[in-house]
């Protein structure tokens, strides 16, 4: 088969869908691997690096015209859908709940489209779970971004001039991004507290050395896919009041709460921000999904009542080298999992539960 990777054109996107190491793995399966010229330019890789790994460096048009499987980080541009071969497989983040015209266009083109966001969170799919691998980096970057903007150090420090107490970090949401934020803040020496609506994650938070903030919300839980369930109005009010007390004395607040396929819940309100100390920093990891922080502006940093609200987009791209390595590995793991050694080809098994979860279009139809 011919597998091709396209360079990203989305503003500010620095990640690449394939790395030379990933190319080598695909070539071992006896694939012809195509990469668009300049694919690795944002992660310090040259076309020669890809060529030495076994890829052909070609034009963007050639990748579309020849590839049976097209790999990308972001969804394809609407204008380029018509360039995809009929029957080709396109794998990328697709944001299918918010991109209906694009999904319809992919179906009309006869493309089988896999949405990486939709890969089930099962044990066997962990090595293919690009959403989690990128969220991991987002949690790390969120802490680094916050620490850079805080006019204080994070660890406790004993000096001849006196002892500097550790900064206090409050992480809201203990999913993949939240747990990595907790771990990173602890490694930097901060005093860390965390909250999540799912009591089941308490042990994970504590295992990282953080204090789990308990707020009695009544019946809560998580979906079969491991995501937090939406709260009702009364539960949200209780949650906000409990968190407001912690936010008031925290130096850094990091919010990571997202509801899959829905707008992110507003957790930190303007009233809560008004109670925070001037100079505090709030980083909203969920800003691209609507944001957890009231008044936050996507792609911007603003001051509200002396508190810096950071709404930077695409946090994983700020660690683009590692993000690309992980993303490319997720893609190759996906391809290898469905590779038939007997027929030496990728087998799109429609009966497989993993494929059922993430295949969005196939043979001219929208499946979800």
Task: Walk me through the structure.
By secondary structure, the protein is of the alpha/beta class. It has two domains: 2-118 and 320-363, 3-Layer(aba) Sandwich (Rossmann fold), CATH 3.40.50.720; 136-313, 3-Layer(aba) Sandwich (Rossmann fold), CATH 3.40.50.720. It is 32% helix and 18% strand. The protein is built from eleven helices and 19 strands. Helix 7 links the parallel strand 10 and strand 11 (211-212). The longest helix is centred in the middle third of the chain and has 20 residues, at 130-149. The protein is elongated and about 65 Å long. The mean pLDDT is 94.
Architecture per CATH nomenclature, i.e. the level-2 architecture of the largest domain? 3-Layer(aba) Sandwich
Q: For the residues shown, what is the average pLDDT?
A: 94
Shape: elongated
Share in helix: 25-40%
Strand order of the largest sheet: 3-2-1-4-5-6-18-19
Which structural class matches the secondary elements?
Answer: alpha/beta
Q: How far is it from the N-terminal to the C-terminal residue, by CA?
A: 27 Å
- What is the C-alpha radius of gyration, as a whole number of Å? 22 Å
Strand content: 15-25%
**CATH fold field value of the largest domain:** Rossmann fold
Q: Total strand count, please?
A: 19
**Which residues sit in consecutive blocks of at least 5 with pLDDT less than 50?**
none
